[in-house]
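Re-running Alpha/beta hydrolase fold-3 domain-containing protein to confirm reproducibility after the cluster update. Everything else is unchanged from the original entry.
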Amino acid sequence: MDPDAEVTFEFAPVIRQYKSGRVERLLPVNPVPPSVDAATGVASKDVTLDPATGLWARLYLPVSARHPGGDSDRRRRRLPIVLYFHGGGLVVGSAADAPEHAFMNRLAARAGALAVSVEYRLAPEHPVPACYDDAWAALRLVVTPAPAADPWVRDHGDVARVFVLGFSAGANLAHNLTLRAGSEPDVLPRGARVLGMALLHPFFLSPPPPAAAAGDEVANYAWVRAKLAEMWEFACGEGRTAAGPDDPRVNPLADGAPSLRRLGCGRVLVCLADDALVAEGKAYYEALLASGWDAADAELLDSAPADHEFHLREPDSDKAVLLMDRLVARITGS
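Result of re-run:
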């Protein structure tokens, strides 16, 4: 059989790879350029964070920050920094995708924040741990003061108020990044601090339970959950170590995984939807409380029966508005 036609991995409607190595990304991406958003007044631009790897990000700056009343006013108006990671199973998606771009415009406007949406490298061309390396590099580059730093970050960002946010696979990156920030606090510059983290419908896995013990949340999505486990192995690449759903990077509750008390932030918001990931999301939140997190600092928002991605597809729905309200409250500390 033609190696350019023989399929070696497929998860429709997400991705397909052929024996030749050719990859088809089936999930559509509608890239849009940075701009000044007509609805919110938020300006955006793309910046290179690391030329060596091609890592880049789309920055978002609210309209009020672009018209300061002088240097002293600018210092008073330093904005919280939101470091955001898009979804896509570690294999698809983009910071430039139209729904992600619109979401970041709304968030930057509502929270009055400087938002940094990271275009991390995707598998299988860049297998795990490239995505985790990019997340860590993005955090360090954003909070490290330097004369050559991007002017928006240098002049407007408050490195003492960083908020890490991720959706789906991006939430997996956000968790692992914040855990590393708590484990290696001395690596970040003096004064830089991750204040909070929000996980939107996080991509976590767990070993499949016996059929008799599987609740509806697991049984109803059995096929999807099995494909997600396969996709994790696919993202790790051939010849690379992946312990399947027992790998702490994709299962924070696996035996031997670091305690959630080591998360390097002061507050957490876990957001759930009616999807194949909800059981692990609930277990993660319960593990937060069991590890010693106070309920005032660890919040749960369950948006069921709304499904995965509802906040991107239906931004004006009641549940999407409530989700945005909770995110803004966490970012601003209100």
